[in-house]
Amino acid sequence: MTVSAVADDRADRFEARTFDQDGLGTIRYRLLSPHSLESGHKYPLVIFLHGAGERGDDNNAQLVHVVKELASDEMMDRSPCFV
Length: 83
Description:
Blueprint lengths: L2 H9 L3 E7 L3 E7 L35 H4 L2 H6 L5
Antiparallel strand pairs: 1-2
């Protein structure tokens, strides 16, 4: 498996979602959830603010640089969180 294939696999872990606000339009975003959720356990939320190079309207461009680190099995096992 190539490095780009691994990054693509990890990018697929970020679920494409939308937030609709009446009169203000729709915001498209991605959500990465912990592998398994324990009932009653609190998980942190990490908000990733991408740079200008990752802007766009396809909801994919922002997955270029952070995917390898935040969506890795090692990271999610060590520090499960929502991203």
